[in-house]
Structures are given as structure tokens and as C-alpha cells.
UniProtKB/TrEMBL annotation:
Designated name of the protein: Glycosyl transferase family 39
Lineage: Bacteria, Candidatus Woeseibacteriota
MF term (GO), any: transferase activity
Top-level division of the source organism's lineage: Bacteria
Membrane spanning residue stretches: 51-71, 83-102, 194-213, 220-236, 248-268, 275-296
Species the sequence originates in: Candidatus Woesebacteria bacterium GW2011_GWB1_39_12
Key words of the record: Membrane, Transferase, Transmembrane, Transmembrane helix
Amino acid sequence: MMGLYFFFKSVNTSHPEFSSGSKKEMLKQVQHDNNSKWLPYSAVCFGLTPWIYSTAKLFTPALLIFLVIVFRKEIFSISKKNIIYALITLGIFAIPMVYTIFSGSGGQRFSYISIFTDPTTNGEVASLRLIDAQVEGGVNRNVLQKVSTRLIHNKYFYWGSKITNNYFETFSSQFLFVKGDLNLRHSPEGIGQFYKVEALMLILGAALFFVFFKDRKIKLLIAFWILFGVVPSAITRDGGHHATRLILILPPLVILISYGIVQSISLFSNHWKKYLALIYFGFWILSFGFYLHTYYIHNPWYSERDWHAGYKEVIQSIKEMEGSYDKIIITNALDQPYIFFASYYPYPPKEWQKGFEEEYVEGFGKLKHINKFYFGQVGEEGIESLQAVLEEKTLYIAAQRELGENLIMEPTKTPEGLDLVKAISYPSGEPAFYLFERGEK
């Protein structure tokens, strides 16, 4: 947004055509030159944007190309000095980004979430071909290799279907106004990305804006921003309802909603304007109140696993009792625990940055560790084998899912040969972690 703000601040005055040396025209030129000095600031903002989030690496270059094409007359009317400054500034930020992308490190995250690297693709395609074969009279190599089957069911069509589904899902009422992002770290349960009361304003705003707004170039910008802003997310797995990857289209949607509110109210007489505004914002405040209730009361329960609840209490407990143990093993059965340990302990950064060592631990295999803190889980035989392999003065932090029992409610179900030192619960009261040590024989 700031990049566009400085961009329009630079090009908002038309370059005057000098036919005489009138004072008025000279003042226009001075004003134009003063405005164009903001172009390098725009370049700074655009150059920094791809570093903020991965989807901007695709969207930002596309937006810049769009701006150059649509606003070329305004850009080329700017002094060459400011254009050169802007290009140099943009290059300072863009060249390192381009290098990281093509060297592999910058594109590592995208390669992990891209639909083009989805490991389930081949299996899905093979399953569809198998159904074709069964429908046509049985499975045999000839049917599976038929040209028609391979033309319809292949990875390229599969990718195209996934991208299209993601693209249209973004504009669905389910994502925008009903359920939102299914990841509860991004959206509270049962609340869309916008309030339901804003749905009508978005529809009216889009209709009124694209029909009656006079500046054609601005309309093209908003349309491009929305339609292409979805693309970087659409080519990723679950990109159709991933709020953080789709945050690029938030500003133009807010603009259209705001435009819809203002223009809709302005259609009525002054007598009705204030009442309509009060009614609308009354519904908006009710929606906001419902959101706050859901977020602070219900969401901590609904999203406790998504937010990795329990880790803070686990690390705090470890810190309190670490003096009693020579070795503390933190399970990775629930998630990788490194970042939680480093943050909540908190572990000295200088020591942490030296890296981990590896050590073979009986019953666990090779575990990474730093000092007395080990990360991994008990072997294939599970918790039942823990009493046979857990050494004296060793503490094992197990996830509840490794045991499947609620030891908070039924502590007597603690596996034989182990002592339950402590149980850590989620906000809902359900067990999250168990701290075990070797029991007395």
C-alpha cells in the first residue's frame, strides 16, 4: 500500500505541455518535479515487499509491470533523474531477492507448499485412471494406457483443476463471510474473513465502483489487484482458503466495501443518511462484539491444538525441575519442539546458535541434543516400552497422543514401571503432555 501511495503521489500531476512560458505552466512544472521526488520512496516500499511474505515475490513484479504499462505516460513525464534514482533503489532490494530465488534458498518454502510438488499428485492421477479402467470392463494395461484416459487424467489437468478450484474458492461466501480460513490460527471458528454485514456492501461497492467511478486506470488497477492477487495463493496447496497467503487482496476488497458504504448512503436524502449510517454501523458493532466473544471465550478452546497450547507450561515445568535430572527428552510426536524450547526457556542465543549434537539413546535411537536437553520420541514399541529403556534421572515429556489415555482423570492408568511426575492440560482441560520418569521396581 505504501508503495502505491508514493507512486500516485509521484504521478498525480500531469506533465504540462509548454506552448509558452506562462507563470501558471511553470508552477505546474515545479509542482510536478516536487511530486516526482517521491518515486524513489515508492521503489523502496516495492523493493521491500517481496521480503515480507513469499506470495509477494510473484505479485509485486507483476504489479510493477502493470503500473508501467497502464501509467506509462505519467511515469515517462517524470524527470529522468528521479526515474534513475528509483530504478537504482529498486535494484538494491530486488537483485538480492532474485539471487535467493534462483539459488534455491528463496524458493524453498514455495517448493514445499506448491501444488506442483504435491506428493499425492501421482497417486490421485493413478486412482482416476484406475476408475476409468474399472468402468470400461476391468483393469488391464491396455485400458490404463489408452490415449483418452491419459489425455484426461494427467498431472497437468490435475494441477489445472486444483488451481481453478483454489481460485474460485477464494471468492466463495464460505471463505469470505461464513467460515474463513479453516486453520484456526488464521481465523476463529465460524467467522469469515469479513463480517456478514459487509457482504452486501462488497457487492454494491464493486457494482457502483466499476460502473460509475470515472478514472478508468484506477478501475483497472483494482481489478488487476484482486484478480491477479489471488494467483500466488491459488498455486499452493489449500491456497483457496489460506488467509495469510491471500492477504494481498485485502486492501482492494476493503476499498470496495468502503466505497459501497459511502456511495450507498449518499444515494438517500440527508434526512435518511444518518439513520441508515446508524443502522449499518449498529449491525457492524454487533458483529464485532460477536467476534470478540468468539475470539476470547470460545477460540482458546477450539484452537488450542492449532496454537500449540501446553508447550509454554511444559518448558516452564522443565526449568523448575531440571536440576533433578541428568537428561530431559522432549517428544516430537506432536510437533518439532525446538522453537518452543528456545523461546520459553529462554535458551541463551549464543549457545543455541552453536547447533545441536547427536547421541544414540537406548530405546530412542539417534537424538539431537543441546546440553542435557534431547529432542525425539521413544521407538516403535511406544510408551509401553519406556519403563525398560528410560534411564535413572531421565525425564521424558510425552504427548498425550502417544499414550491415548487421560491420566488427569484416571492417573491409575499410568504405564507400569513409570511415575507420572506431572500432567499438562490444554485450556479445555484435556491432557496435552505427560512428564514421566522411571518408577521404582
